[in-house]
Amino acid sequence: MIKNIGPLEQKILAILWQNHEATARDICSSLEELGERRAYSTVRTIINRLVKKNIVSQRLDPTERIYIYTPIYTKGELEKRIIHGLLGEMLRKFEQSTINYLAEELSEDEEEIKRIKQRLAEMKKHG
After folding, report:
1. How far is C-alpha 35 from the chain's CA centre?
2. Which of 1, 33, 43, 109 has an alpha carbon 20 to 30 Å from 99's alpha carbon atom?
3. How do residues 86-121 score in pLDDT, each as one tens digit?
4. Which domain holds residue 20?
5. Angle, to 10 degrees, between the axis of helix 7-19 and the axis of helix 24-33?
6. In this structure, are residues 46 and 9 in contact, taking their beta carbons and an 8 Å threshold?
């Protein structure tokens, strides 16, 4: 389960989603262009964390002898996995409080309630 993504991890992922793949040096250069100057070793450490979290894959380019990093999930897929994991954990630990909180928050927005009801009806129909 992916629990959280830190700010620098988010920036690195945004670069990878935009470019589809990149080396650590490419990512460093892109971060610098965004005004985010980071040491190469720091960027490599963060990328390695993303690899260990199974969010980014790495493959060795045999001719250049460098790693090329690729995102495993699209932004939407990753967000869905994080939300699913966090919400599932909250429901397991604090079921009634979580449900009450969500109902209270959603009760303010009639359009959102309408969309949720439509989605639930679709889910019920298909499964």
Report:
1. 22
2. 1
3. 888 888 888 888 888 877 877 777 887 788 788 878
4. 7-71
5. 110
6. yes
